[in-house]
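Assemble and predict.
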Amino acid sequence: MSSHRPLRYLLLLILLIILMVMSGFASYRIAQQLGLADLQTTGLHRLDLYTASLEREIGKYAFLPGTLGLERDVLALLGKSNHEKSLKLVPQVNAYLEQLNERAGTLSIYLIDTNGHVVASSNWRRADSFVGEELAFRPYFREAMENGHGRFFGIGTTRGEPGYYLASKLTDDNETLGVAVIKVSLEQLEKSWTTVETPAMVSDENGVVILGSVANWKFTTLRPLEEKTRTAFDQTQQYNRRALKPLGLKELRELDHGARLVSIAKDTPEIASVYPVAGRFLAQSRPLPGTPWTLTVLSHLKQVDDIAQSRAAVVVVITALLFMFGLMANDRRRHLKDRLAAREALQQAHDELERKVNERTADLSATNTQLQEEITERIRAERTLRAAQDELVQAGKLAVIGQLSTGIAHELNQPLAALRTLSGNGVRFLDRGDLNTVRTNLERIAQLTDRMGLITGQLRTFARKSSGQLQAVPLCNALDNSLALLEQRLIHANAEVRRYCPLPEPVALCDVNRLEQVLINLIGNALDAMEGQPSPLIELGCESIGEQARLTVRDHGPGLDDTALSHLFEAFFTTKQAGGGLGLGLTISADIIRDFGGTLTGTNHPEGGALFTLEIPLIHEAEQHE
Ligand code: ADP
């Protein structure tokens, strides 16, 4: 995937460049077209304006040559009736023309007779006066003679001054007398153009620029002149043999409404001008009414080009930005799509998980119900077991009592016999009146019955079913009670008991009745093991080790063999002869101690004999009070 990335970037870059170029080019063309349309409208307005001002300027003089025909002296001068008389009028008419010329602000005013001779002129005073000149070849003269009016642009033959000639035929009673001519300076006409904002020019029917807002353009040609035309110019001396250079205008393209795109070559040296005079222009032309001339307005394209360029630049930048924006939007869309897909996948995984969890929960609840049933079953079984165990404990106790019964019977027989003797003696001493001996006997009887009560009390306590309640039990005291119950057996076996009890006496949390049952069982086993020995010895220990109280019962018998060691606490394991033991003693004892939260272990002492160790949790003083 990542290896495609640089290629993708390259393609995007190429696409961006193509888009930028295309949009730039298109916007440039559109902006240029719009600019050209604007320029065309402005150009037409200017054309209207310049045409109007030129027409007004020319119109001012149009009537002037005709008015000369109203002057009597003028008519008399041109009249052919009396040559002598008319010659006398020349100075008068000259003066009149001079005056009129001054007032009208024209270049010159003169009269030509029907033969083409200038008979009177406003410039009669000057050495180069027109008077006497032959002007029959001038087109305006011929036109006026033929049509009544003649208009002509040309350069003066005498002074080489360019001007506009307005000629009118003068008649008297339908007789042609001659032609009155007014020459208007072109500068006069150009005056109205001083404020133009763009180059403008007037070309005559030959394509020669006769009026121009740019000085250098005057007397240049807009199109190449044919040789025939040049020869005609020589005859009419229209341009007074001036060199008519081409302006250097080249047509580039035709546009709508007669507009053209043209270019004008740079003229050297550069002309100082308020507007550009070289480069590409929009040229708009219109014929000037009443003249054979054409007015042309040139609007420079630089402004349009500049605007089109800047618009194109803006469009290129916008295109680039839009492209980037598009890319970003696309990236974002893809990112969102990915995220949506991921979320969907996650949702699916979640649904799947939930389904599985539901399944498992259903399984679990089934298992749970099953387990609960099993637990209830176990509890029930345990209760049954506990009841059986209690029964067993009781049975064990009764067995012990059975074992003890011989000793107890012996124990009771002795005081009973003594009671019998003492009471018999007592009667006899009472008869003798020996009251002191009777008192002594009675006191002895009381002592004996107390002792008998003690023995039967202990037996009753032992045989009683345990409450199952745990209490603080002083351990040495429990040892003593157990020894008291076994007293007869110990005496009978001639056994020595060594008891080690520290002070303060350790106190453990247990059931005194059951603990004594365990101790009696252990001491009983010890006596059994040492049966037949001349001086059996039992060592009883009691001590506190950390949080535990430890009670030990050690004998000096044969100890435990391997079979006994491995099956010691198993129910019904016994090595004793039938009637000797049930093999339940140690099993029940271990169970009782486990109930107290303790342990019972049996091993061989390194110096011989069996050693049974009993460990149960200690109770500290503060706990005892609670
Ligand atoms: P019982 O006394 O009814 O046999 P116990 O559970 O008390 O049942 O004892 C199981 C067996 O463990 C005895 O039969 C005996 O073999 C052995 N045993 C118990 N205590 C001692 C001991 N102090 N010395 C040697 N063997 C013993």
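The radius of gyration is 78 Å.
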